[in-house]
Amino acid sequence: MNKNSCIVVDDEPAAHYVLVNYIERSTDLQLVAQCYNAFEALDFLRENKVDLIFLDIEMPEINGMEFLKMLDNPPKTILTTAYSEYALESYDYGVVDYLLKPISFPRFFKAVQRFLSYNTAVSPQEEEPKSISIRMDGRIIDVKLSQIDFIQSFGNYVKIVTPSQTFLTASTTQQILTQVPASKFIRIHKSYIASINKVIKYEHGMVQINNTSLPVGITFRRELQERLANK
């Protein structure tokens, strides 16, 4: 199996230790270089083509964002940093994911899967659905995913909330979660699934969607923060 070549660019040896360990556990990646500053990485990339960069932002002399701006056609990049303030800017430079340190292996694995999805052509049969079919009042109704604000657990039912209408169907949030695309929806609480593109604000453990505020469970907050950085 052909592996995707990758390099690690980080000034911290401890960060290299973690990422190298994770890369060695991945069957889809092959580490071809370790660079401890942007100059080393620039020299390597002048002579070599790679598929993926694991890039730290806070580095001396030339930081990660400055480094990306210097590349005419940068490889796919996963940022690895302890700082989140650059997240929104980073996605102007083809960054596929943003990992906050300390990085867990499950979160690393998820980022790699996102990178792999960028490199895989999606066939018509694999295109994301445009609507979800539910049973309501004895009828099958199609609800457009683009209209959904959020989904709420309601006893033995779930409420699917849109700006103009609320649909009530016998189901669970977990069942609904398997039917909506993960690229557009995220579980933010044991009782709520939110449309990531409808989130207006996130602060103090709450998200705002239109005029509604929804709680965010503690275990869901980190992924939500990273997903919002992807918007």
Walkthrough of the structure:
- It is a single chain.
- This protein has two domains: 4-118, Response regulator (Rossmann fold, 3-Layer(aba) Sandwich), CATH 3.40.50.2300; 126-230, LytTr DNA-binding domain (OB fold (Dihydrolipoamide Acetyltransferase, E2P)).
- The chain has a five-stranded parallel sheet.
- 27% of the residues lie in helices and 34% in strands.
- By secondary structure, the protein is α/β, with parallel strands linked by helices.
Indicate the CATH topology of the largest domain. Answer: Rossmann fold
Beta content: 25-35%
For the record, the count of structural domains works out to: 2
Largest sheet: 5 strands, parallel
Ends: how far apart? 33 Å
As laid out across the biggest beta sheet, the strand order is 2-1-3-4-5
Strand-pairing-aware structural class: alpha/beta
| C-alpha geometry | elongated
Question: What's the CATH class label of the largest domain?
Answer: Alpha Beta
Helix share, percent = 25-40%
State the order of secondary-structure elements, H for helix, E for strand.
Answer: EHEHEHEHEHEEEEEHEEEEEH
The number of strands is 15
> What is the overall pLDDT average?
86
